[in-house]
Amino acid sequence: MSVYTRQAKRPTISSEKGYSLFELLVVIIILSIISAVSLKSLKSASEVARIEQTKQELRQLAYAIAGDPGLISGGNRTDYGYVGNVGAIPANLQALVQNPGGFATWNGPYVHDDFYASAAASESEFGIDAWGTPYQYSGGDIITSVGGADPISFKVANSVADLLYNRLAVAVTDFDHSIPGADFKDSITVNVVVPDGTGGMAVLQKIPRGDGFVQFDSIPVGIHTLFVVYLPFNDTLTRRIDVGPGSNLYTEISLYREVW
């Protein structure tokens, strides 16, 4: 009788090895470093974006106060902002979106604010920087953001004087360019119509010298009306004058006829 013996199969041992604890730790450390670097880069990019956004907003606020020099029509500047309409520096940024005292010459809002209609002034979009911090401004020629790591300032103009105390010189002659002289100078008035700083208009009036020369100081930036009147005939010549920041303007006006 034959004897048949079944041999049991030996279990197969896999040759594949798993990750060791050390290798896993190395992977975790590498991923942590990559994550930290990425977060730092994202934070840096976000900070740069906030800085640029704030700079743009500061520029727009400056334009709202003193006008955008890039707005030109027919070769003439058309925008002098709040100062050009009112003849004064705004006491605060709120005056750019809300008439500060029933001023008839106020022509705002001078800056767009999506949230002004529904939010308090301190929460309004135009008045805060990209970090959510209110801009610092209480009149004057500088607006400052303090929300970031370093303050960001923007100058509205070189100085307040450049916005409010400009000069205008006018020389008046008759049709053949003769000067009035001592006998006729008192028959002429030279007038400039400007905003008075409190919401109204003022007429600055002077009588020229014998050589027809007259000078005005303290003219705010803006588009103003200059008119010369020869009183005996009530002849009036009118001219538009554009007064930019830091101006020292000179213009000549000749009457319609030979009068002296």
What does the model show?
- The chain is of the alpha+beta class and 260 residues long.
- The chain folds into 2 domains: 57-160, no CATH class; 165-254, Transthyretin/hydroxyisourate hydrolase domain (Immunoglobulin-like).
- It is built from 4 helices and 11 strands; from the N terminus they run H-E-E-H-E-E-H-E-H-E-E-E-E-E-E.
- Strand 3 and strand 4 form a beta hairpin.
Class inferred from helices and paired strands: alpha+beta
Compute the average pLDDT.
88
Provide the helix percentage: 10-25%
Question: In whole angstroms, how far apart are the ends?
Answer: 159 Å
Please outline the major beta sheet. 4 strands, antiparallel
Number of strands: 11
- Please tell me what the overall shape is: rod-shaped
Poorly predicted ranges: 117-123
Spatial order of the strands in the main sheet?
7-6-9-10
Rounded to an integer in angstroms, the radius of gyration calculated over CA atoms is 36 Å
- Count of discrete structural domains: 2
